[in-house]
Amino acid sequence: MNFDALTPEQIDRLSGKLRAAGLRSTRPRLALAHLLFGAGNRHVTAETLHEEARNAGLSVSQATIYNTLNQFLSAGLLSEVIVDHARSYFDTNVTDHHHFFIEDETRLIDIPLDEVALSSLPNAPSGYDLAGVDVVIRLLKAPA
Amino acid sequence: MNFDALTPEQIDRLSGKLRAAGLRSTRPRLALAHLLFGAGNRHVTAETLHEEARNAGLSVSQATIYNTLNQFLSAGLLSEVIVDHARSYFDTNVTDHHHFFIEDETRLIDIPLDEVALSSLPNAPSGYDLAGVDVVIRLLKAPA
DNA sequence: TGTCCACTTTAGAATTGTTCTAATCTACTT
DNA sequence: AAGTAGATTAGAACAATTCTAAAGTGGACA
């Protein structure tokens, strides 16, 4: 795909979505929006999206991928899931419990298990075993 | 604190803990174990623990901090919480829902909200606003 | 008790994912 | 059409973590 492959209708729809989110409708954003929102729900990382863009004959820099994902994120067009082993906290409490994470202060607070419980756990897809359940409740300092 | 500040009783106790976990009892491990398990539950990052060790007059390399934390982690002496913005997945599904994360494949699968619900949410500590709730259920490929 | 070997630790380099910088470009207003 | 605020770029910088290869050490066993 390159940008010109989009039909006027697609461009209108995606442009509208961008503008509604307070973002200018630019070529790279339209193209990435098309990849992201063109067909059903998706999970991407910056890397997978970049590769996909390149495969589609689109030349966008890595920085633009990051900028765009973060702009879409703050505009509420995307949500974010943090999973990998990077910037970890280690907790001497190895019992089953969950956490408040205060974003401004990068500080963790334990939540006793009985204050937040999962009402039901879905079955692991067959072929997989449960390795753990993480519940992180993110907090922001309240506006003054 | 330096290693020699530990009483024989403390050394015995920590040594036993290490050995029970299948780890040799070495000076750096004993000293770090003392910092970690010496007083109540704690949250540390590699960095905070390293600084604490240095302040205690202990000279341990960064690599040892990481090695030790990871060894304690796989031995079950610590648990890990992943919170920060690093290695993120972006999800076009912005409705309230949670995820399976398949560790071997670094792949995400949506869990419909009705299959995993929090039975109750603790109140945010005063002065803080709820910014989001992340539930990640980690999966490992089942042994063959 | 001394020797030996597998396991540990170390310093520093390498890697990975992400953000920053400063220059260039472009969408939109007038 | 020109000006300007915002967007994009390549590449450098950064931060957290892991790797590497060499030197050190715990503890089993003679």
Tell me the greatest interface.
A-B, 70 and 70 residues
What's the assembly state of these chains? homodimer
Give me the count of strands of chain A. 6
Distance between the termini of chain A: 48 Å
Order of helices and strands of chain A: HHEHHEEEEE
User: In CATH terms, what is the fold-level topology of the largest domain in chain A?
Assistant: Arc Repressor Mutant, subunit A
- Which architecture of the largest domain in chain A does the CATH hierarchy give at level 2? Orthogonal Bundle
Spans of at least 5 consecutive residues with low confidence of chain A? none
The helix-and-strand class of chain A reads alpha+beta
Q: Round the Cα radius of gyration of chain A to an integer and report it.
A: 20 Å
